[in-house]
């Protein structure tokens, strides 16, 4: 692999110059904050443990700061960009700054939430700077849609990072924590200061590492069935599970029956349960349905 020129990555002046040339103003609507520090993007790539044989998918590449650093380290990179102007400009930026790697880059001009397939080999890694307003749904969609993604590193608002990596019993443990844990082992992987972005956001950012489970959660319930329990439990998180799951189960008594069968106290709250416990609760209802169906 030919080493790219040392100045191939985008610095603060490069980012502003590119943005001016394209007439781009970062928008709050899309949560656009462009990384302007080459050391930060290299640190992200190192933390993501990107390998020379990796096929990386990047969501929201923007002007290409992280994309170029990923191309330095990976076998190939596919970027998914929703913005018309940014999507149109990115291939030219790659060709201009890293011509020897341009054939290793592919662009998908689409909303990541609607992406169901990607060009080229199956992705092995997801690395992205995700806008906080769509971070969790985009992350969960990509993990569900592309099971070959083994390692993920996302940069998100610090509060979102805390939620994703929270353990049962934590005040911020909730739907994102449980659903992310369905797919992967999740942990905080560092903090990112505000001054590496343009414009500087009003919030701190954090890195979250997700390593896909080698063995899926052992359950006879489907993901949809398990996630339905999770959603119900946290929709009324102050209530006991007996009360919170009454609508899902059909009645408080039915909810209590499912909880007891799963070995969970009906007086517990959703924030104390592991993903495995949610799966056991879902299993009980799924099994009941099977028993009631005529042979």
TrEMBL record:
<keyword id="KW-0694">RNA-binding</keyword>
<comment type="similarity">
    <text>Belongs to the class I-like SAM-binding methyltransferase superfamily. rRNA adenine N(6)-methyltransferase family. RsmA subfamily.</text>
</comment>
<feature type="binding site">
    <location>
        <position position="111"/>
    </location>
    <ligand>
        <name>S-adenosyl-L-methionine</name>
    </ligand>
</feature>
<dbReference type="InterPro" id="IPR001737">
    <property type="entry name" value="KsgA/Erm"/>
</dbReference>
<feature type="binding site">
    <location>
        <position position="35"/>
    </location>
    <ligand>
        <name>S-adenosyl-L-methionine</name>
    </ligand>
</feature>
<keyword id="KW-0698">rRNA processing</keyword>
<feature type="binding site">
    <location>
        <position position="33"/>
    </location>
    <ligand>
        <name>S-adenosyl-L-methionine</name>
    </ligand>
</feature>
<dbReference type="InterPro" id="IPR020598">
    <property type="entry name" value="rRNA_Ade_methylase_Trfase_N"/>
</dbReference>
<feature type="binding site">
    <location>
        <position position="60"/>
    </location>
    <ligand>
        <name>S-adenosyl-L-methionine</name>
    </ligand>
</feature>
<feature type="binding site">
    <location>
        <position position="81"/>
    </location>
    <ligand>
        <name>S-adenosyl-L-methionine</name>
    </ligand>
</feature>
<dbReference type="InterPro" id="IPR011530">
    <property type="entry name" value="rRNA_adenine_dimethylase"/>
</dbReference>
<dbReference type="InterPro" id="IPR023165">
    <property type="entry name" value="rRNA_Ade_diMease-like_C"/>
</dbReference>
<feature type="binding site">
    <location>
        <position position="129"/>
    </location>
    <ligand>
        <name>S-adenosyl-L-methionine</name>
    </ligand>
</feature>
<feature type="domain" description="Ribosomal RNA adenine methylase transferase N-terminal">
    <location>
        <begin position="40"/>
        <end position="214"/>
    </location>
</feature>
<keyword id="KW-0949">S-adenosyl-L-methionine</keyword>
<keyword id="KW-0489">Methyltransferase</keyword>
<dbReference type="GO" id="GO:0052908">
    <property type="term" value="F:16S rRNA (adenine(1518)-N(6)/adenine(1519)-N(6))-dimethyltransferase activity"/>
</dbReference>
<comment type="function">
    <text>Specifically dimethylates two adjacent adenosines (A1518 and A1519) in the loop of a conserved hairpin near the 3'-end of 16S rRNA in the 30S particle. May play a critical role in biogenesis of 30S subunits.</text>
</comment>
<keyword id="KW-0963">Cytoplasm</keyword>
<keyword id="KW-0808">Transferase</keyword>
<dbReference type="InterPro" id="IPR020596">
    <property type="entry name" value="rRNA_Ade_Mease_Trfase_CS"/>
</dbReference>
<dbReference type="Pfam" id="PF00398">
    <property type="entry name" value="RrnaAD"/>
</dbReference>
<dbReference type="InterPro" id="IPR029063">
    <property type="entry name" value="SAM-dependent_MTases_sf"/>
</dbReference>
<protein>
    <recommendedName>
        <fullName>Ribosomal RNA small subunit methyltransferase A</fullName>
        <ecNumber>2.1.1.182</ecNumber>
    </recommendedName>
</protein>
């Amino acid at each position: 692999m030919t080493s790219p020129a040392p100045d191939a990555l985008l610095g603060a002046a490069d980012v502003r110059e590119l943005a001016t040339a394209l007439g781009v103003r970062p928008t709050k609507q899309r949560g656009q904050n462009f990384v302007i520090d080459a050391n930060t993007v290299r640190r992200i790539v190192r933390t993501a443990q990107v390998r020379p044989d990796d096929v990386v998918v990047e969501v929201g590449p923007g002007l290409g700061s992280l994309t170029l650093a990923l191309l330095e380290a990976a076998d190939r990179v596919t970027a998914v960009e929703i913005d018309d102007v940014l999507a149109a400009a990115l291939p030219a930026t790659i060709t201009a700054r890293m011509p020897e790697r341009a054939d290793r880059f592919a662009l998908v001009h689409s909303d990541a939430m609607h992406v169901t397939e990607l060009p080229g080999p199956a992705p092995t890694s997801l690395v992205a700077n995700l806008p906080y307003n769509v971070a969790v749904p985009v992350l969960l969609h990509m993990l569900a849609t592309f099971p070959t993604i083994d390692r993920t590193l996302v940069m998100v608002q610090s509060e979102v990072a805390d939620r994703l990596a929270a353990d049962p019993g934590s005040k911020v443990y909730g739907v994102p924590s449980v659903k992310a844990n369905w797919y992967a082992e999740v942990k905080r992987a560092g903090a990112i200061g505000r001054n590496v972005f343009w414009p500087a956001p009003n919030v701190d950012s954090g890195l979250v590492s997700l390593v896909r489970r080698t063995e899926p959660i052992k359950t006879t319930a489907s993901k949809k069935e398990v996630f339905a329990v999770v959603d119900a439990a946290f929709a009324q998180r102050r209530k006991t599970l007996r009360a919170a799951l009454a609508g899902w189960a059909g009645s408080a008594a039915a909810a209590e029956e499912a909880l007891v069968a799963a070995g969970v106290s009906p007086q517990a709250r959703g924030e104390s349960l592991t993903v495995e416990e949610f799966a056991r609760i879902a299993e009980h209802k799924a099994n009941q349905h099977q028993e009631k169906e005529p042979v």
